[in-house]
Amino acid sequence: xxxxxxxxxxxxxxxPDLPGNAATPEKVALGKMLFFDPRLAASHAxxxxxxxxxxxxxxxxxxxxxxxxxxxxxxxxPTVLNAVFNTAQFxxxxxxxxxxxxxxxxxxxxxxxxxxxxxxxQLRGIPGYRDAFARxxxxxxxxxxxxxxQKAIAVFxxxxxxxxxxxxxxxxxDAAALSAEQKAGLSVFIDKGCIRCHxxxxxxxxxxxxxxxxxxxxxxxxxxxDKGRYTVTRTDGDQYSFKVPTLRNITLTAPYFHTGTVWDxxxxxxxxxxxxxxxxxxxxxxxxxxxxxxxxxxxxxEVTMPILPPSVATTPRPxx
Amino acid sequence: xxxxxxxxxxxxxxxPDLPGNAATPEKVALGKMLFFDPRLAASHAxxxxxxxxxxxxxxxxxxxxxxxxxxxxxxxxPTVLNAVFNTAQFxxxxxxxxxxxxxxxxxxxxxxxxxxxxxxxQLRGIPGYRDAFARxxxxxxxxxxxxxxQKAIAVFxxxxxxxxxxxxxxxxxDAAALSAEQKAGLSVFIDKGCIRCHxxxxxxxxxxxxxxxxxxxxxxxxxxxDKGRYTVTRTDGDQYSFKVPTLRNITLTAPYFHTGTVWDxxxxxxxxxxxxxxxxxxxxxxxxxxxxxxxxxxxxxEVTMPILPPSVATTPRPxx
Lengths: 320, 320
Hints:
2 copies of one chain form a homodimer. Chain A is mainly α. Helix content of chain A is 33%, strand content 2%. The first copy, chain A, has helices at residues 4-7, 25-36, 48-51, 98-107, 118-124, 127-136, 146-158, 166-171, 180-191, 230-233, 265-277, 283-294; strands at 208-210, 241-243. In chain A, α2 (25-36) packs antiparallel against α6 (127-136). At the A-B interface, α11 of A face α11 of B.
């Protein structure tokens, strides 16, 4: 029988290294400022943290996020917590890593809506950022770039981990870390085949899967207009395929699925049974699976709000 | 000659007591959660901290704030920092204190837009808040009320102080805390009569003054439709009167005036000379006054982001 320790891995206490993007204290500090700075948005009113609220499981608990001029994003905002361990970023995996992801929302017209050339202009217009970029990227002639902002944000985000969930303590050998019901749920999770997609360190995040393998979840959960991974690869087999979301901290990150249309975790579990397993889960199975998922919530990162470098009279002003 | 020590007072390190609203650790912790919780807004997307960003001098650095469905507020958002020392809250003083103020934006349809009855409904729908209110207001049969939310927010905000500005060190006797130019600016500030309105612990915040005593600042800075304090008192003498804003942390809180239409502190100083002193300030006077104002920026509060009590399946959901 396959065991939990073969299928999953514990979340570490410290950030993994990012290839080609060494984390220095100066770069992490810069990334933290940028993560919280609403001046990266055209309006100066939306920051990374608006939709990836570290007080709310790294999400905004909205079906889809509210962006520039109250426009709605196309898909539910995934959590930033432990996101460094995902195989790629966004529901369709269109960004290879956190660094690539960070460039998306800033310039997306329905999110932060800063034109690409404007981001470095804005940052250069804030004297404290000129210094902070110079310290984070020493030796570069022109360190205040969008690419460097993405690097700095990525190293900050790589440290947004939630170690020490009951399930992690269980994986480390503390059999008492899970309740009897949670252990029963883990057995169902393994035996029913949830683990085919939800495995690895993030219990998800490692692969793509067609939504509706056995039965379509319906147009509310799977609107025909959003073909998921296919929009990136243009490969027929990827139609309606999405990145399998992490189940870590899932009790904090409602609503669920790429549409964000299911608010109740029990209901989401039932949908998964029907659509992905072709198996009508019994009420007791749904109960134990949901209880097991409660064991996946880890210690949330404690982050001190950064004091942001002040704007000056010549700093570019918010756009209406 | 009047001295700075007679006119001003230093910012203390710790929060003052609020009459009838004792600060307990539980109440401060609850107030901090509420301050950062966007679920107090109908949209679940706007919190107190959206417009009173502790990384940006307790303001949003917007002319007027962006509220529910991207509506604009009527006046520039004042800083929450040291606001406990203001004689009243809002530009028109319509709230007597922080506790009264905190109730305003939550229910204001252009700001957070939560109907008054909805706030406690929302909070009761989040189990962690039921516990947190019970701990903060022990012995109350029904502690989850809008009034108690306001009390908790007020005790948290009362601790948002910025002690140890160079000017405070100067007031305490450290003559070297101000530069020669800043000292010259302080002399101009006293001699020209800025101190008639900008005095006391907040160097402002203690009284109301008609905007345009000597000359109207024009319709951009003083739109005829906003009669200021008059809208509260209906007393003719209060027409176009506004609460004198604090000058503490003024380098962080652009744009200026109740309209937020002046982004350059030097320009704001010049406007004050013309409109309030009836004295065209010279360029050197503007320079030294602006330098003096730079000495009013204190140590910004270090705040750890609160982990918010999670929503559950039955928690009221955001309104579209």
